[in-house]
Amino acid sequence: MTTAPQHTGPGVREVPPGPPAPAPQLPTPKRPFTQTLTRLLPLSPALILLFLVLAGPIAYCAYIAFTDLQLTGQAHSSFVGFANFRTAFKDSEFLNAVWLTLVFTVLSSLIGQNTIGLGLAALMQRASKPVRTLTGAIVITAWVLPEVVAGFLLYAFFRREGTLDAILVWLHLPPQNWLFTLPILAVSFANVWRGTAFSMLVYSAALNEIPKEITEAAEVDGASGWRRMWHITLPMIRRSIGTNLMLNTLQTLSVFGLIWVMTRGGPGNKSQTLPLYMYEQAFQNSMIGYATAVALLLLLVGSLFSVIYMRLLRTEV
Q1: pTM (predicted TM-score)
Q2: What span, in angstroms and rounded, lies between the C-alpha atoms of 91 and 87?
Q3: Residue 172: which region, alpha, beta or left (left: phi > 0; alpha: psi -120 to 50)?
Q4: How far apart are CA 294 and CA 273, in angstroms?
Q5: Contact of 289 with 68, CB cutoff 8 Å
């Protein structure tokens, strides 16, 4: 059967063809459970190891934090709920340790290691090969030293009649006992001296990834070094900056040996950060449950920093 052709004339209006009908969408086939299990099977050793090494101990510590477990003199522990956390927030020594931990982290990680590491990486981009080799060797040597050795070296530098006082006397300036008058600044400087190498290596790798054509074009246009750094370099290495800040912050929050060797948290509690406070409560006062509750609070602080950095690392739309 044939369709008669439609004739159009001056009094007949031609009807344009309508849009094609949308194709029916077929339901997405569900993946069989056996196929999903087969895909996860090669990951099972890693997942089991992660559970045993990380998730298991964290869950056990979370349980201990809600008990009155003691190191000595106790046959059985009992569940005390949030009593350990309430005790912590009412303790002036705990609040002082929180404040000193934040000061230590901001001075030595966010400002010290991050800024000096970026500055060294930028300067080494323009330095000669012998200067780069010598600078890298000095900075990395401080990084690879054991924490206890670095602590003793910085103790000899800051102690009364130590290296720093000898330099001040040579400059005809009055010496002082830095570990007594400014202990938190002394340990912050020590952590900067020891950990700057990591930031320098991260930023050196990031700066090497910036195309030279961009910086050369900005230099030809008359942009100064600071303007190139602010408007070109920093935006292009933004993700490296966020990653470096996150790793440095988490490492700094857990620093123990360096401060213990230099000041042991003293004098008094002027340099007692949260790791040292936890050690005192757990192994000197034998309050394992209370110290574990403080450890969970420190874990929460590190998680908050991680969430902030991860949000900053998101790609802008």
Answers
A1: 0.79
A2: 6
A3: left
A4: 11
A5: yes
